[in-house]
Amino acid sequence: MRATQHNAPHAPQGTGMAVFAGAFFALRIAIVLLCARVLGLEPRTGAILTIVAGIVLFALVCFHSLGAPDTTGAPILPTRAILRLPAMRWVLLFLLVSGLSFAWTGSVAPSASFVYWCALIVDVATVLLLLRGNSSTETAQALMRGFLYGSCAIAILAWIMPIQSDLRLGDPDYLNTNQIGNLCAFALFFAQYLERSSSHKWTLAKTLLLLTLVRSLSKTTLVAFFLSQSYLLLRDNSISHRKKISLTLGALALALAFWSLFAAYFDVYTNAGNQSETLTGRTGIWALALESALTKPWLGNGFDAMWKVIPPLGIDRFEPRHAENELLQQFYAYGVAGIVLLAGIYSALFRNFRRISERPQRILLISLMLFILVRGLAEAEPFDLLLPLWSIALFSVLAARPNNALEPAPHALQPANPAIVTSM
Hints:
By secondary structure, this protein is mainly alpha-helical. It has one domain (11-66, 76-422).
């Protein structure tokens, strides 16, 4: 956001709702934990509350969109134009294929799985409804701010929670260390994007999130974040040489400060790591997932067809929730079609990022893609992608704005004009 935008007389309509939505997207990962550990409710109740809360949020956004029209004079980006964006077409195709897969899914509870699939659609619809209004770039940045606020709250909660037996943050059942680490890393990318788009600095938030990310000891997330940030430092010319040196020295100091903890965790990891955490355990999950995927190579096993379907592994009887690899997870769930969908979504989004004229934002978003790809080597999501579908909708609209500018070009916003698609 340009500095002059801070002096605008009126905030764009929907900004407050976008902040609220962004905060919810971050905070909801703790709902099951709070229900189970604090309120003593069944975990299923927490999962239901999470989905219901998402539906309520969507209803609020729908109601809010019916309010007084925005008077800023900025043209509205039509829904049809948004849905014609290349990455959004792939997202819609992904949702369609995953929905059709209920015809052959091996899920042990198809009705419950169907609710989770509907929740994905609600998330995407919520973001699209927010962004189709006037000044969608400001609204997108407001959503990022809300996500940052919610992520900071989760980070504080992670420090308050009892430490796990393997020295990591989180609760192994309801809010594990990988969820905490990924949330903090994702929020850090949002903070960096906001700093490149406005004069506001997020130093305190970034410090809290970075410390929490490192303290989480989420191995794959830390490696992916380190590689993506290294790429960012090497390629982003907007960062001065002196600041690059300062950031490098700061990273070294942070590693030294946590070195004794890293050593202690490594000792626990090599001697008492469970089936889901050790490399041997991961390779076992990969082998079983690949073996099952090859039995249905074209359309896969269907939506949510791994939980309690693949037999427990190891002496700890670990039940895999996903394939621990994003490419393998999509192959297991949707076969070759899943691989095509994953490649289509990420390649379309990458091409969009490369066309952003402002280099700092372009390099940052490409580094985010690198983070997702590296993390996907040893992580996955049971329903969604590692880069959530709602965030793909968010970035698609941001990248579609001419030159990533705050003020959209009128010719790109006409619903009958395909220029917004063909220019991508």
